[in-house]
């Protein structure tokens, strides 16, 4: 079976990056930690990740080539602790979100075990440009 490429369509000039973005987004699709994405107002978004047990020092948020990457790694448990049952996940994680052009990170905050990352899409003015035709 042949893979059909969106970038190969003659009406989609310059969209070859779209497939690469979709592939990058699919790579970060594991199930931990759970998250929500909310639409806030006309141009706002909020990503909320459930990171119970993680402190600010255990988390990092980076923006790498339009990809928002949230990483978490807790310090090793104290020696001498004996668990009769251990049901709280304390594993390291990495969660990625691909951001569209014009979407910027406004703020991030940790409250009650939830990491909130606020995003805003900047609205650009519509530009109409006339292209002169020259005789060669």
TrEMBL record:
Alphabetized UniProt keyword annotations: Stress response
Origin species: Paracoccus versutus (Thiobacillus versutus)
Listed SUPFAM superfamilies: HSP20-like chaperones
Protein name: HSP20 family molecular chaperone IbpA
Domain SHSP: 26-136
Membership in a protein family: Belongs to the small heat shock protein (HSP20) family.
